[in-house]
Design brief:
Blueprint lengths: L1 E6 L2 H8 L2 H8 L4 E6 L12 E2 L9 E2 L1 H15 L4 E11 L2 H7 L4 E6 L7 H7 L2 E4 L9 H12 L32 E2 L2 E2 L9 H19 L11 H12 L1
Parallel strand pairs: 1-2, 1-6, 5-6, 5-7
Antiparallel strand pairs: 3-4, 8-9
The protein binds 6-chloroguanine (6GU).
6-chloroguanine binds next to strand 5.
């Protein structure tokens, strides 16, 4: 899968995605990251890409020309008009389901704004999706695009070790993950739950399922509304709610 990021800070993207699991995925050729410097398309020798807002007001607005030309460089490279995600707090809030949808694309373009935003005309021309990563305001779209690239990359086959499609984990069945333990069996006087040392896989599985349910009920009860639950799950949850 190929990610193209239109940005004024390409080194931020290269450094961020080039590290850890996504960096290894790049080395393996499973994903690629093409950070396009919008300033390279300024079209003037000063490299200016922003200007005062028409109508007045605070801050600067990114001009349409450089953004459009940087987008065109991607279209030329791949030979078709790709999906273009504009990172904005005004967008639809990103979630795992959206990540699964975006993971189907062979090429995906992220447009990162800065200052007070980007001239609306070029957004109308090229943007297919407006996406936010949550209800708070950041200084630019670079971190949000890296969040999305990280999340989408781990859905690309081969990026994670485990072949048991690691797609979900925290959102398997819309439930939170159960707690994990490793050696030592006792730490500062606190023991690992006995059942995990029992060797009874059926019991371990049931215990983990119940821990997931309990955790989700306590921490993210909103997720349970969309969860796929078995009869025993519902029974367990009823019992928990009585406590
Ligand atoms: Cl996508 N961009 C900015 N600037 N701030 C945000 C965001 C995006 N998502 C949440 N806050």
């Amino acid at each position: 899968m190929n990610f193209h990021v239109l940005t004024l800070f390409p080194e931020m993207i290269e450094q961020g995605v080039g590290t850890s699991i996504t960096g290894r995925a790049m080395d393996k050729g499973l994903i690629s990251v093409n950070a396009v410097n919008i300033r390279d398309y300024a079209g003037n020798k000063h490299g200016q890409v922003d200007d005062y807002p028409y109508g007045g007001g605070a801050g600067m607005v990114m001009q349409p020309g450089p953004v459009y030309r940087s987008y065109e460089s991607v279209v030329e490279k791949i030979g078709y008009k790709p999906r273009v995600v504009y990172m904005t707090p005004q967008g639809k809030v990103f979630n795992q389901k959206m990540a699964e949808e975006f993971a189907k694309e062979e090429n995906l373009v992220f447009l990162c704004g800065h200052y007070e935003g980007i001239d609306e005309r070029v957004l109308d021309m090229i943007v297919t999706d407006h996406v936010s990563i949550g209800d708070y305001v950041l200084t630019g779209g670079e971190l949000p695009s890296m969040v999305m690239i990280d999340c989408i990359s781990r859905l690309v086959p081969g990026v994670l070790h485990n072949d048991v499609s690691a797609e979900f984990e925290s959102f398997q069945d819309n439930l939170l993950e159960y707690p994990q333990y490793t050696r030592p069996a006792e730490f500062e006087g606190v023991k690992v739950p006995d059942i995990l040392l029992s060797g009874d896989h059926a019991k371990v599985d049931r215990w983990r399922r119940e821990q997931s349910l309990k955790r989700t009920l306590e921490r993210r009860p909103d997720l349970l509304e969309e969860a796929v639950l078995q009869k025993e799950d519902l029974k367990y949850l009823e019992k928990q709610k009585e406590k």
